Fold this sequence. Notes:
Shape: globular
Strand order of the largest sheet: 6-5-7-8-9-1-10
Number of strands: 10
Distance between the termini: 32 Å
Strand content: 15-25%
Mean pLDDT: 96
Number of domains: 2
Oligomer: single chain
Low-confidence stretches: none
Number of helices: 8
Helix content: 25-40%
Amino acid sequence: MLDYIWLDDKTPILNQLPNNFKSAAILPHPFVQMPLGWEQTKRKNPYQHIYPSDEEILKLGIPIKWDKMIHNCGLTTHKELAIALKTSICALREKYSREDLANKLNSTFKPDLYYPTEDSTSVFLISDILKILGSKGANHLYYSAPIFDDSGILKINNSTSLEICDLSPNELILTDENMDFAFMSVYDSFITLFLAKSENMNHIVQLMNLEAIICDDKTYINWYLY
């Protein structure tokens, strides 16, 4: 079992991984498009904060990749979009925040379009994560949720996306029993970190059609600042 990895922002990600992992990728969480009029059916007053549950997202939601949002709101890079998101939730120090980017992003928002999940892995990604964890013959996954001091083992084929999401609302790491792969959510980040024992991360990402930023030896956990 692998404990959650607390990454610092002073050292490249690849230099902080356990020895068996050789490559890493940042998986941006998709934005959530719900059916037209969905929010109106939920709203009870003008000030109510509404965000769909994981179950509602799986049943009715459509994932919107960062590439499409970048195009739609006139931004240019994944880094700009990450800064816009983190500025909007006040997750950056003042010297790094960019209200201009946040305004560009938010000006394109319409009812029934929602931010990605910021703390926990998007429910949209879990199905692919389970496929990858079992792709080399593993039957079980290990999980560690450090905030709740909780850990355990689950059968991969018997686990559902909702069950995995229910393990933790914030930091969580999932690994297969052979330690070939790991997936780790990062608080206030809108991303999940994907780790692999092999060095062919590009092949895995392309095979699964995942939107990803491949980490090199200069990629930090605060990758959007570099």
